[in-house]
Amino acid sequence: MKRTVALIDRLHYYHIWQIALGLTIVFVVISIIYSNFIFLRLVEEENKLMEIWAEATRQFIQADENTDIDFVSYIIEDNTNIPVYMLDADGNILLTRNVRDTVADPTLLHGPIVVDIDENTTQYIFYDDSIALRHLHIYPYISFGVLALFIIIALVVIYTTQRSEQNRVWVGLTKETAHQLGTPISSLAAWQELLQQRYPEDEYIPQLQLDISRLQAIAERFSKIGSEPELTLQPLLPVISQTVDYMQARISKKVALRTECADNCLDVQMRLNAPLFQWVLENLIRNAVDAISGTGSITLNLHRDNRTIVLDVTDTGKGIGRNSFKRIFRPGYTTKKRGWGLGLSLSKRIIEDYHRGKLFVCQSVQGQGTTFRILLKDAIDNAPAS
Q1: What percent of the chain is predicted at pLDDT more than 70?
Q2: Is residue 262 within 8 Å of 302, Cβ to Cβ?
Q3: Which residue in 136, 123, 106 sits closest to 45, CA to CA?
Q4: Of 11, 93, 114, 284, which sees the most CB atoms within 10 A?
Q5: H/E stretch holding 34
Q6: Cβ burial 298-319 (10 Å sphere, 16+ → b, else e)
Q7: 44-58, 78-92, 134-148, 156-170: which has the minimum mean pLDDT?
């Protein structure tokens, strides 16, 4: 039921943005089509104006001292925004109007409009788009750019806000869990001490103490989520070995759990928060166990590339589809009937936000198994632990 509600919420979110994106595309297309329509009409109008201007120029040149040229002069002077070039038959520029920077070849512009001055003289008028016409032509693209920028900013704000809200939910949940665990753990510790006093020879009481200590460590892990954990320089291999030993006694005997370590990693030290790092390993091992049906194996392979430590957790389980490589790290994503879908999300946060490393699916083949890879930088050899 929980997964269904989450799926509906995601579909609703994507549906809204699909509608918004669709409306945006429709708006841009309509704007471009309409602007292009107006542009073509204005091109026709400017062409007619230039025909009139060319005729007025011809009459002005042919006029003698008895001809009234007030009207043609008005037409010529009225053109204040269309760049015009008048060329002779040899292509030489005779005059320009409304031209800021002369183009190299005016014959590439609109035209020519032929102006027959007399039987022996012919001139040609070429003209460019007016500034207003050029602005109109690029207007829809500017509108699209502004709209696209607005959508990108809105998406970033929504994503950031959503992620911040999710982080607050997870932090609040983990801290409340740690708080709720505190009282029963304290009570169990008191009962364990009483049993230890009454039955000092009982062989099961030390095991009870181990499990109580484990519960205390789990509560401590939850309490650290949302605050910057303290990292200390310590040997890495013992931290891994302790986790493997703990998990080996708590998983199916049909699953072989082993550690492989390259020679150059035996004494390597890293800055770690051991309880949180072990939590990551436990999550990866539990997921690997769940992925194995029946008999299988889980291998933790520790090796290095210069100062980068590489820890591969490989199982022989059912594998993961490539399209789920990133989705499995999203909060709430799970393929199990039970569970909150937080294990891998928290693990990724512990490795990447707290330890400045990387956690990702290195490879997976369905039916054969999966390898999760942890990358940790700045390995130190033979350094004293702080």
Answers
A1: 87
A2: yes
A3: 136
A4: 284
A5: helix 2-62
A6: bbbbbebeeeebbbbbbbbbbb
A7: 156-170
State mean pLDDT over 244-270: 90
pLDDT at 167: 66
Residue 380 has pLDDT above 80, yes or no: no
Of 136-140, 200-204, 374-378, the range with the lowest mean pLDDT is 136-140
The answer on 180 and 167 residing in a single domain is yes
Do 202 and 321 belong together in one domain? no
- pTM of the complete model beyond 0.85: no
Q: Does 268 share its domain with 375?
A: yes
DSSP collapsed to 3 states, 120-183 = CCEEEEEECCCHHHHHHHHHHHHHHHHHHHHHHHHHHHHHHHHHHHHHHHHHHHHHHHHHHHHH
CA dihedral in degrees (24, 27, 32, 33; nearest 10)?
Answer: 140
Distance, in Å, from the CA atom of 331 to the CA atom of 343, rounded to the nearest integer, reads 8
Residues 107 and 144 in one domain: no
Mean pLDDT score of the chain, rounded to an integer? 81
Of the candidates 249, 182, 170, the one whose C-alpha atom is nearest the C-alpha of residue 215 is 182
- Rounded Cα distance between 221 and 350, Å, is 10
Domain boundary, last residue among 129, 155, 189: 129
Q: Give the number of domains in the chain.
A: 3
One-character DSSP codes across 192-257? HHHHHHH-TT-SSHHHHHHHHHHHHHHHHHHHHTTS----EEEEHHHHHHHHHHHHHTTS-TTEEE
Tokens of 308: 């980068």
* Model pLDDT, residue 285: 95
- Examine the domain organization and report whether 327 and 353 are in the same domain: yes
Q: For 238-255, how does the pLDDT look when each residue is reduced to its tens digit (9 = 90+)?
A: 999 999 998 988 888 899
Range 249-273 average pLDDT:
90
Task: Tell whether 123 and 140 lie within a shared domain.
Answer: no
Percentage of residues in the chain having pLDDT higher than 90: 22
CA-to-CA distance for 140 and 120, rounded, in angstroms? 47
Q: Cα separation of 95 and 232, whole Å? A: 82
CA angle 208, 214, 369 (to 5 degrees): 115
